[in-house]
């Protein structure tokens, strides 16, 4: 089943980051939503760290207006570094430099916000005919659960494209792209995707397998995206392009596979889930956790008494 394209190592990642973050206004009026802190790092750094840990050394960030802070964060801050050197603050100096050393960062503007499919399409020249990963910044995957590495492994073995799937309550499936699947014999966590529906109406979902924000894509997707008309919301949906790929011949880079993820995922695109993510991650930190968990127990106890 392996195609010539699939033998090319996956070394590049695309991170769409052009959204306006309207759900977090007014905090995102002048600050990119990707730069909102999750404990003491911006959300986007967790995503880039994940890509780097999976061996992806070349990352293209698809940005828009008012996103200059993203470029600055992954660039050197000489004045700040010199100040920390003079103070002898090696710990903070190390943390400031971490973001610069993660990967080779590149940037391109999306222009008109025409949807995720359009954001991916503007990466075509940079990807240069290679399979590549796409990581959405709203989904943070715990580094103890190496989802992306597993997806790359599947793509290299089976070819085609790979999406990340997670079981959700049927009442919530209308919030996601949804996959119809069948077993393909590659493992209990791997399926062949036979159909995809973007945010299905209640009662019309083919399963409760939701597509979450990790993809490893065959470059054939660019040909399909050029022919994909605007779909739900008047935007070019990546789900629609992947649905078309499920009908293509495997030897030509078609077929879509799904990796079922049962690990820890933090959704930072919703305000309540964003707060829960911060609490969970802070509670597990060695430097913050003990004191924070103690305070949290007291706080929750007092709230229950009220």
UniProtKB/TrEMBL annotation:
GO terms for molecular function: UTP:glucose-1-phosphate uridylyltransferase activity. Keywords: Nucleotidyltransferase, Transferase. CDD domains: UGPase_prokaryotic. It comes from the Bacteria. It catalyses: alpha-D-glucose 1-phosphate + UTP + H(+) = UDP-alpha-D-glucose + diphosphate. SUPFAM superfamilies: Nucleotide-diphospho-sugar transferases. PANTHER family: UTP--GLUCOSE-1-PHOSPHATE URIDYLYLTRANSFERASE. Belongs to the UDPGP type 2 family. This is UTP--glucose-1-phosphate uridylyltransferase. It comes from Kitasatospora cathayae.
């Amino acid at each position: 089943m392996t195609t010539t394209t699939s033998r090319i190592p996956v070394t590049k990642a695309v991170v769409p980051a052009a959204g306006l973050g309207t759900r977090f206004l007014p905090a995102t009026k002048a600050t990119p939503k990707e730069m909102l802190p999750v404990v003491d790092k911006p959300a986007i750094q967790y995503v880039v760290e994940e890509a780097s840990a999976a061996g992806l050394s070349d990352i293209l960030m698809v940005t828009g207006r008012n996103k200059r802070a993203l470029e600055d964060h992954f660039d050197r801050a000489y004045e700040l570094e010199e100040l920390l050197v003079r103070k002898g603050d090696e710990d903070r100096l190390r943390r400031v430099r971490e973001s610069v050393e993660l990967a080779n960062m590149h940037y391109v503007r999306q222009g008109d916000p025409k949807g995720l499919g359009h954001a991916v399409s503007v990466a075509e020249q940079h990807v240069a005919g290679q399979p590549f990963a796409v990581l959405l910044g709203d989904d943070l995957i715990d580094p103890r659960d190496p989802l992306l590495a597993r997806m790359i492994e599947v793509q290299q073995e089976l070819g085609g494209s790979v999406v990340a799937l997670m079981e959700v309550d049927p009442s919530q499936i209308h919030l996601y792209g949804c996959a119809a699947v069948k077993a393909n014999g590659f493992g209990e966590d791997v399926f062949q995707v036979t159909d995809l529906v973007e945010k299905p109406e209640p009662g019309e979902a083919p399963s409760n397998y939701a597509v979450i924000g990790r993809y490893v894509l065959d470059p054939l997707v660019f040909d399909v995206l050029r022919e994909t008309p605007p779909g739900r919301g008047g935007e070019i949906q990546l789900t629609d392009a992947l649905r078309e790929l499920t009908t293509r011949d495997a030897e030509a880079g078609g077929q879509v596979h799904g990796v079922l993820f049962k690990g820890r995922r933090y959704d930072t695109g919703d305000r309540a889930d964003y707060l829960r993510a911060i609490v969970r991650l802070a509670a597990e930190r060695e430097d913050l956790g003990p004191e924070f968990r103690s305070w949290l127990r007291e706080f929750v106890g007092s709230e229950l008494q009220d």
